[in-house]
Amino acid sequence: MSNGIRQTHDFTSLWNRPGFLIRRLHQIHVAMFLEECDDFNITPVQFGVLTVLKGQGALYQVTISNQLGVDRVTVADVLRRLEGRGLLERPISTTDKRAKLAIITAEGETFVQAVQTRMILAQRRFVEPLSEEENDTLMTLLTKLMEANNDASRAPFRPNSGR
């Protein structure tokens, strides 16, 4: 052990690198999501933004960024695209005239409901090879890794942060 970091695995092979496997699984998951949600022309990040906005009222861009763990520039681009589709509105803040808020529209709410079933199908397909116990273990371990390493991210996940 050096610098408090365990030296228990040989990471010379790609198949022994958690980061490689996680990246590859992410690619597979995105492909499944896009396949299942093809009729809706939506990406996982776009759907994440709508999910954050659903039922939360008006939110600042930085709040959405924090709640998704996605950088503000990406969120700004997603907000522009979703606004262009009529799925959300971007009114100026009444407390800070320099800032825009994001509010899901009625059309956006209906859209989320329509996509939800297909998104859930993509999630189920992704974890289908696992038993229920294995899925619970996977979710526990992924959450543990995310929470322990969250601050190393360029866009940390901060679900309870405001503006």
List keywords for this structure.
163 residues, mainly alpha, three-stranded antiparallel sheet, 6 helices, 3 strands, 55% helix, 5% strand, globular
Quick recap:
With 163 residues, the protein is mainly alpha-helical. It is built from six helices and three strands.
Description:
With about 160 residues, this protein is mainly alpha-helical. It is built from six helices and three strands. About 55% of the residues lie in helices and about 5% in strands. Strands 1-3-2 form a three-stranded antiparallel sheet. Helix 1 crosses helix 5 (about 105-125).
Structural class: mainly alpha
Q: Give start-end ranges of low-pLDDT stretches.
A: none
Give a short account of the largest sheet. 3 strands, antiparallel
Strands in their spatial order, largest beta sheet = 1-3-2
N-to-C CA distance: 41 Å
Please state the CA-atom Rg, rounded to the nearest Å: 18 Å
Q: Give the integer mean of the pLDDT values.
A: 91
Helix content: 55-70%
Helix-strand topology string: HHEHHEEHH
The portion of residues forming beta strands comes to: under 5%
**How many DSSP helices?**
6
Q: Which term fits the overall shape?
A: globular
- How many strands in all? 3
Write the layout of secondary structure elements.
Elements: H1 18-36, H2 44-53, E1 59-60, H3 61-68, H4 72-84, E2 88-89, E3 101-104, H5 106-127, H6 132-149
Helix pairs in contact: 1-5, 3-4
